[in-house]
Amino acid sequence: MEKLLIPQIARAVEATESFEFKESIEGLEILTPVQGTISIHHAGSFLQVTAKASTIITLICDRTLVQFNYRLAINTSEMILLAEPLPEGEYPKEREVETGDLVDSLSPNGYFDPAAWLYEQLILAIPYPKIAPDAPALDFSNNPTENLDVSIDKRWAALSSLQLSD
User: Fold this and answer.
1) Nearest to 117 by CA among 31, 13, 32, 21
2) Cα dist from 122 to 15, 30, 125, whole Å
3) pLDDT tens digit string along 26-76?
4) Which residues contact 125 (CB under 8 A, 6 or more apart)?
5) Do 48 and 114 contact (CB within 8 A), yes or no?
6) Whole-model pTM above 0.85?
């Protein structure tokens, strides 16, 4: 996937670039090419990016340490703010950051990289913890404190005599 010039997206029909893809994404170890569709809509002060994609990756089960194949699929949407970044010398030494400030932003005259955006979305979709479908279930039926010898460290025993009465 090629990077798209943001002003060119604004000049497209209905200010939208849409395309299908079937290719490898650099940095992502996959068994099958990532395939799907992506749509980038220029809405003036932001880009509305939506994508549906899927691939198969190999994961290592956190419970059994056995490799298994996992179908990684996304159906996601994100708004990316179009704003010129401040020159580095103009940043204040201290600044209160509002929750609304924590959004992705691009220069309105820059490029949008669909492959990098797609990579980020796929990485975020990898499950945590990674549990294989055939991994044994954890057994929580036994109470682990039943079999413990509950003895108090004698260094703390002196403190128990200092308890204040109510």
Assistant:
1) 21
2) 25, 11, 5
3) 888 899 999 999 999 999 889 999 999 999 999 999 999 999 999 999 999
4) 72, 73, 74, 76
5) no
6) no
Return the amino acid letter for 102: L
Copy the structure tokens of residue 109.
């005259």
Helix boundaries (H) for 12-164: 114-125, 154-160
**SS3 at position 100:** helix
pLDDT over 90 at 153, yes or no: no
Percent of the chain residues topping a pLDDT of 70:
82
Each domain of the chain, given as residue ranges in start order, spans 4-87+97-138
Q: For residue 157, what are its two tokens?
A: 């025993």
- With left for phi above 0 and alpha for psi between -120 and 50, is residue 65 left, alpha or beta? left
Sheet holding 34-42, edge to edge: 16-23, 34-42, 46-60, 67-82, 105-106
- Both tokens of 152, joined, read 């108090």
What is the spatial distance between Cα 37 and Cα 18, in angstroms, rounded to a whole number? Answer: 7
Strands (E), the chain: 4-5, 16-23, 34-42, 46-60, 67-82, 105-106, 111-112
Q: Residue 143 has what pLDDT?
A: 59
Could you identify the residue written with the tokens 């940095």? 27
